[in-house]
Amino acid sequence: MKEKTKKKLIITAAILLTVMLVYFIIALLPRGNSYEGENPMMKETEMPVLIAHGGGNKEFPDNTLEAFYNAYSVDNRVMMETDVSITKDGVVILSHDTTIDRKTNATGNIIDWNYSDLISQEIDFGYTNPTDDNDRLNGERKKFKGPDGLEKTPLDVEYPEGVNPRHESVFLATTLEELITAFPNNKINVEIKQSGDTGLKCLDVVIELLKKHNAFDRVVLASFHTEIFNTFLRYQKDGTVPSNFMCSPGTNGAIKFVALYILKLDALYNDKICVLQLPTEQMGIKLAKKSLIKYAHKHNVAVQYWTINDEDEMRELIEIGADGIMTDYPHRLKEVYESYNK
Fold first, then answer.
1. For residues 7 and 43, what is the distance between their CA atoms, to the nearest angstrom?
2. Which of 120, 167, 199, 333 has the most CB atoms around its CB within 10 Å?
């Protein structure tokens, strides 16, 4: 009996030693590049890239061309973060929601609206209406107000020379193509909001727009929907998109990277992404860490944080070397950056 116990202990110890040996071998393996070549999402200066969330949606109405012009007036190198959905007539428009109830003076699913009708009826995307959990209108309509408490119009934007307001009072629907062509030198993050077959249809139209405008080197695609992200990866493998195609993972992909980083097994991470877009904390785990950014950089992956509106958090992310900071207040973040130059 003692002999059997002894053998079991020896076998158990051998297994544990083998596991430990494999672990240390993996931990010491070189990290492969998740993005091949120069990564456009890495910061180019000491300051992280200023990323305007929805164009800076506390300063001007969310995901409107006017909001992005406002952000551009703050920093002409601003990276623009937007969300998109496809309409019934196949046009990709900017919208955080897949309905128009919260942001306009109308209602309905975007997929049930024609873009041509949104324009001909002058549907106004200048609202912040109360909605229920399904983004359906739930109360009185409410016009957007800026940080000063005043309602905004397209005339309040500081436009570049030669650019005129599209409308004097209405924030018209904005297409992704308008955004890409209005800012030909700016990086753009595009999150696909619709899911299932509709989301995949939207993705394919977005891909065609990037081909048409040769924008793969400055537009990164994102989605929280697993089927969309898996299609990103499949398109990379089968050559549907060029080698410089850029994407970021959704929740599951980010969790996978962070879990492997914590276990020091990130050498096993092989998704072809160019950027991790993270909150500063998730499920009680602090993600705003210099070591996490360091590990991501070993994979040639940039790290951007969302959505940062507190000045102290902005400064913390600057200090740990974040590649980008996404904010609702472009002017506020710009002031923080400028304070480092005084």
1. 57
2. 333
Give residue 55's domain range.
31-339
Q: What is the pLDDT of residue 279?
A: 95
| pLDDT tens digits, 185-203 | 999 999 999 999 999 999 9
User: pTM value?
Assistant: 0.91
Q: Count other Cβ atoms within 10 Å, centred on residue 77.
A: 12
Query: What contacts 59, CB < 8 A, 6 or more positions away?
Result: 67, 70, 71, 146, 147, 328, 329, 330, 331
Tell me the per-residue pLDDT of 145-179, one tens digit each, with 9 for 90 and over: 999 999 999 999 999 999 999 999 999 999 999 99
User: Where residue 186 sits, what CATH number does that domain have?
Assistant: 3.20.20.190
Distance CA 154, CA 126 (A): 9
In a domain, 9, yes or no: no
CB 321 within 8 A of CB 293: yes
Query: Is 239 strand, coil or helix?
Result: coil
- Is residue 6 situated within a structural domain? no
Within-domain flag for 24: no
Q: 217 with 40: CB under 8 angstroms?
A: yes
Could you give the number of structural domains in the chain?
A: 1
Q: What is the pLDDT of residues 251-293, one digit of tens each?
A: 888 888 888 888 888 777 888 999 999 999 988 889 999 999 9
Termini Cα distance of the chain: 77
CA 280 to centroid of chain Cα atoms: 14
User: Is 100 buried (19+), middle (13-18) or exposed (0-12) by CB count in 10 A?
Assistant: buried
Q: How far apart are CA 56 and CA 12, in angstroms?
A: 58
Confidence (pLDDT) at 14: 57
